[in-house]
Amino acid sequence: MLRNTRLPHDASLTTPAPLLRHPWLPLVLGSAGILSTVSLGMLLVVAGRGPTALDGLWHDLMLDWRTEPWVAVATWFDSAGGVGAMVVVGLFLTVSLLIMRRPWSALALATAMICAEAATATIKVLVARPRPTDSLADTGLTSFPSGHTTIAATTAVMLTFLIGRRFWLVAVTWITMVAWSRTYLEAHWLTDVVAGAVLGTSIAVVVWWAVRRARSSTLVRRRSGAT
After folding, report:
1. For the whole model, what pTM was predicted?
2. CB within 8 A of 202, min separation 6: which ones?
3. pLDDT, tens digit, 9 for 90 and up, residues 95-107
4. Staple partner for 179: which of 22, 105, 193, 215, CB 3.0–4.6 Å?
Protein backbone atom coordinates (compact mmCIF):
# COMPACT_ATOMS: atom_id res chain seq x y z
CA MET A 1 0.00 0.00 0.00
CA LEU A 2 1.37 3.39 -1.00
CA ARG A 3 -1.43 5.52 0.34
CA ASN A 4 0.43 6.58 3.48
CA THR A 5 3.70 7.25 1.71
CA ARG A 6 2.37 9.53 -1.00
CA LEU A 7 4.07 12.93 -1.12
CA PRO A 8 1.98 16.10 -1.38
CA HIS A 9 1.31 16.67 -5.08
CA ASP A 10 3.22 19.42 -6.87
CA ALA A 11 2.03 19.19 -10.47
CA SER A 12 4.59 21.72 -11.63
CA LEU A 13 7.37 19.45 -10.43
CA THR A 14 6.06 16.39 -12.26
CA THR A 15 5.19 17.99 -15.61
CA PRO A 16 8.26 19.77 -17.03
CA ALA A 17 8.08 22.69 -19.44
CA PRO A 18 8.02 21.47 -23.09
CA LEU A 19 11.44 22.89 -23.94
CA LEU A 20 13.05 21.30 -20.87
CA ARG A 21 11.80 17.72 -21.05
CA HIS A 22 15.23 16.24 -21.67
CA PRO A 23 16.41 15.03 -18.24
CA TRP A 24 19.73 16.93 -18.32
CA LEU A 25 18.92 19.88 -20.59
CA PRO A 26 17.85 22.26 -17.78
CA LEU A 27 21.13 21.65 -15.94
CA VAL A 28 23.18 22.20 -19.10
CA LEU A 29 21.34 25.38 -20.11
CA GLY A 30 21.29 26.80 -16.61
CA SER A 31 24.96 26.08 -16.00
CA ALA A 32 25.85 27.66 -19.33
CA GLY A 33 23.94 30.79 -18.39
CA ILE A 34 25.68 31.09 -15.03
CA LEU A 35 29.07 30.47 -16.61
CA SER A 36 28.43 33.07 -19.31
CA THR A 37 27.60 35.67 -16.66
CA VAL A 38 30.79 34.94 -14.74
CA SER A 39 32.80 34.96 -17.96
CA LEU A 40 31.40 38.34 -18.97
CA GLY A 41 32.30 39.67 -15.56
CA MET A 42 35.87 38.47 -15.93
CA LEU A 43 36.10 40.05 -19.39
CA LEU A 44 34.95 43.34 -17.91
CA VAL A 45 37.66 43.08 -15.28
CA VAL A 46 40.30 42.50 -17.94
CA ALA A 47 38.94 45.45 -19.97
CA GLY A 48 39.17 47.80 -16.99
CA ARG A 49 35.64 47.38 -15.50
CA GLY A 50 34.30 50.41 -17.36
CA PRO A 51 31.25 50.67 -19.64
CA THR A 52 31.32 49.08 -23.07
CA ALA A 53 30.48 51.05 -26.21
CA LEU A 54 26.96 49.60 -26.09
CA ASP A 55 26.63 50.61 -22.45
CA GLY A 56 27.58 54.17 -23.36
CA LEU A 57 25.08 54.34 -26.21
CA TRP A 58 22.24 53.00 -24.05
CA HIS A 59 23.18 55.32 -21.17
CA ASP A 60 23.00 58.37 -23.43
CA LEU A 61 19.72 57.18 -24.96
CA MET A 62 18.12 56.85 -21.53
CA LEU A 63 19.29 60.37 -20.66
CA ASP A 64 17.84 61.77 -23.89
CA TRP A 65 14.49 60.08 -23.25
CA ARG A 66 14.25 61.06 -19.59
CA THR A 67 10.95 62.68 -18.59
CA GLU A 68 9.33 63.14 -15.19
CA PRO A 69 6.40 60.73 -15.83
CA TRP A 70 8.74 57.95 -16.96
CA VAL A 71 11.08 58.63 -14.05
CA ALA A 72 8.08 58.05 -11.76
CA VAL A 73 7.29 54.75 -13.52
CA ALA A 74 10.91 53.64 -13.34
CA THR A 75 11.12 54.58 -9.67
CA TRP A 76 8.07 52.42 -8.91
CA PHE A 77 9.55 49.36 -10.61
CA ASP A 78 12.88 50.09 -8.96
CA SER A 79 11.24 50.06 -5.53
CA ALA A 80 8.95 47.08 -6.22
CA GLY A 81 11.85 45.06 -7.57
CA GLY A 82 14.22 45.94 -4.76
CA VAL A 83 15.77 43.31 -2.52
CA GLY A 84 13.68 44.29 0.49
CA ALA A 85 10.40 44.11 -1.41
CA MET A 86 11.36 40.83 -3.07
CA VAL A 87 12.29 39.26 0.27
CA VAL A 88 8.81 40.09 1.56
CA VAL A 89 7.23 38.71 -1.61
CA GLY A 90 9.39 35.59 -1.42
CA LEU A 91 8.44 34.90 2.18
CA PHE A 92 4.75 35.43 1.42
CA LEU A 93 4.84 33.09 -1.59
CA THR A 94 6.83 30.44 0.26
CA VAL A 95 4.40 30.42 3.19
CA SER A 96 1.46 30.37 0.77
CA LEU A 97 2.87 27.34 -1.03
CA LEU A 98 3.36 25.55 2.28
CA ILE A 99 -0.23 26.30 3.28
CA MET A 100 -1.33 24.93 -0.11
CA ARG A 101 0.56 21.70 0.73
CA ARG A 102 3.16 22.26 -1.97
CA PRO A 103 6.36 21.89 0.09
CA TRP A 104 8.59 21.05 -2.88
CA SER A 105 7.44 24.14 -4.74
CA ALA A 106 8.09 26.22 -1.63
CA LEU A 107 11.57 24.69 -1.35
CA ALA A 108 12.30 25.44 -5.02
CA LEU A 109 11.25 29.08 -4.77
CA ALA A 110 13.04 29.80 -1.51
CA THR A 111 16.22 28.03 -2.62
CA ALA A 112 16.31 29.84 -5.96
CA MET A 113 15.91 33.26 -4.34
CA ILE A 114 18.61 32.57 -1.76
CA CYS A 115 21.00 31.28 -4.44
CA ALA A 116 20.31 34.33 -6.59
CA GLU A 117 21.20 36.72 -3.79
CA ALA A 118 24.33 34.76 -2.88
CA ALA A 119 25.52 34.52 -6.49
CA THR A 120 24.90 38.20 -7.15
CA ALA A 121 26.78 39.30 -4.04
CA THR A 122 29.73 37.04 -4.86
CA ILE A 123 30.05 38.19 -8.47
CA LYS A 124 29.69 41.84 -7.47
CA VAL A 125 32.67 41.50 -5.12
CA LEU A 126 34.77 39.68 -7.73
CA VAL A 127 34.04 42.10 -10.58
CA ALA A 128 33.81 45.33 -8.56
CA ARG A 129 32.52 47.35 -11.49
CA PRO A 130 31.81 51.05 -10.79
CA ARG A 131 28.27 52.26 -11.34
CA PRO A 132 27.24 55.22 -13.49
CA THR A 133 27.98 58.45 -11.64
CA ASP A 134 24.67 60.16 -12.50
CA SER A 135 22.24 57.68 -10.91
CA LEU A 136 18.83 58.84 -9.67
CA ALA A 137 18.46 55.77 -7.45
CA ASP A 138 20.11 54.65 -4.23
CA THR A 139 22.90 52.31 -5.22
CA GLY A 140 25.52 50.11 -3.66
CA LEU A 141 29.22 50.21 -4.40
CA THR A 142 29.39 47.79 -7.33
CA SER A 143 27.37 47.40 -10.49
CA PHE A 144 27.77 43.97 -12.13
CA PRO A 145 25.40 42.16 -12.25
CA SER A 146 22.19 44.00 -11.41
CA GLY A 147 20.80 42.53 -8.19
CA HIS A 148 17.32 43.90 -8.93
CA THR A 149 17.22 42.19 -12.31
CA THR A 150 18.71 38.94 -11.03
CA ILE A 151 16.15 38.47 -8.26
CA ALA A 152 13.33 39.62 -10.56
CA ALA A 153 14.29 37.03 -13.16
CA THR A 154 14.78 34.26 -10.61
CA THR A 155 11.41 34.84 -8.98
CA ALA A 156 9.47 35.35 -12.21
CA VAL A 157 10.92 32.32 -14.00
CA MET A 158 10.45 30.07 -10.97
CA LEU A 159 6.83 31.18 -10.65
CA THR A 160 6.36 30.39 -14.33
CA PHE A 161 7.56 26.82 -13.68
CA LEU A 162 5.28 26.53 -10.66
CA ILE A 163 2.19 28.21 -12.13
CA GLY A 164 2.42 27.27 -15.78
CA ARG A 165 3.08 28.70 -19.22
CA ARG A 166 0.25 31.21 -18.90
CA PHE A 167 2.51 33.19 -16.54
CA TRP A 168 5.31 33.67 -19.10
CA LEU A 169 4.01 37.00 -20.42
CA VAL A 170 3.82 38.40 -16.90
CA ALA A 171 7.30 37.08 -16.14
CA VAL A 172 8.93 38.56 -19.24
CA THR A 173 7.18 41.90 -18.71
CA TRP A 174 8.27 42.07 -15.08
CA ILE A 175 11.90 41.23 -15.83
CA THR A 176 12.01 43.72 -18.71
CA MET A 177 10.51 46.57 -16.71
CA VAL A 178 12.77 46.05 -13.71
CA ALA A 179 15.84 45.88 -15.96
CA TRP A 180 14.74 48.95 -17.88
CA SER A 181 14.07 50.91 -14.69
CA ARG A 182 17.60 50.33 -13.44
CA THR A 183 19.11 51.69 -16.65
CA TYR A 184 16.58 54.50 -17.00
CA LEU A 185 17.51 55.72 -13.54
CA GLU A 186 21.18 55.25 -14.50
CA ALA A 187 21.76 52.88 -11.58
CA HIS A 188 23.27 50.25 -13.91
CA TRP A 189 24.89 49.80 -17.27
CA LEU A 190 22.98 47.83 -19.90
CA THR A 191 25.33 44.85 -19.62
CA ASP A 192 24.66 44.76 -15.86
CA VAL A 193 20.93 44.17 -16.31
CA VAL A 194 21.35 41.77 -19.24
CA ALA A 195 23.75 39.70 -17.13
CA GLY A 196 21.32 39.86 -14.21
CA ALA A 197 18.47 38.55 -16.35
CA VAL A 198 20.59 35.68 -17.65
CA LEU A 199 21.94 34.85 -14.20
CA GLY A 200 18.54 34.93 -12.51
CA THR A 201 16.88 32.84 -15.21
CA SER A 202 19.72 30.32 -15.15
CA ILE A 203 19.61 29.92 -11.38
CA ALA A 204 15.85 29.35 -11.50
CA VAL A 205 16.27 26.67 -14.17
CA VAL A 206 19.03 24.84 -12.29
CA VAL A 207 17.20 24.92 -8.95
CA TRP A 208 13.92 23.83 -10.56
CA TRP A 209 15.76 20.89 -12.17
CA ALA A 210 17.51 19.93 -8.91
CA VAL A 211 14.34 20.05 -6.79
CA ARG A 212 12.38 18.03 -9.37
CA ARG A 213 15.04 15.32 -9.29
CA ALA A 214 15.18 15.37 -5.50
CA ARG A 215 11.41 15.03 -5.30
CA SER A 216 11.39 12.15 -7.78
CA SER A 217 14.19 10.34 -5.92
CA THR A 218 12.43 10.77 -2.58
CA LEU A 219 9.18 9.45 -4.01
CA VAL A 220 10.95 6.41 -5.48
CA ARG A 221 12.68 5.64 -2.16
CA ARG A 222 9.41 5.88 -0.25
CA ARG A 223 7.65 3.64 -2.70
CA SER A 224 10.48 1.14 -2.52
CA GLY A 225 10.33 1.14 1.26
CA ALA A 226 6.61 0.56 1.21
CA THR A 227 6.77 -2.52 -1.03
Report:
1. 0.87
2. 29, 30, 31, 32, 33, 34, 37
3. 999 999 899 899 9
4. 193
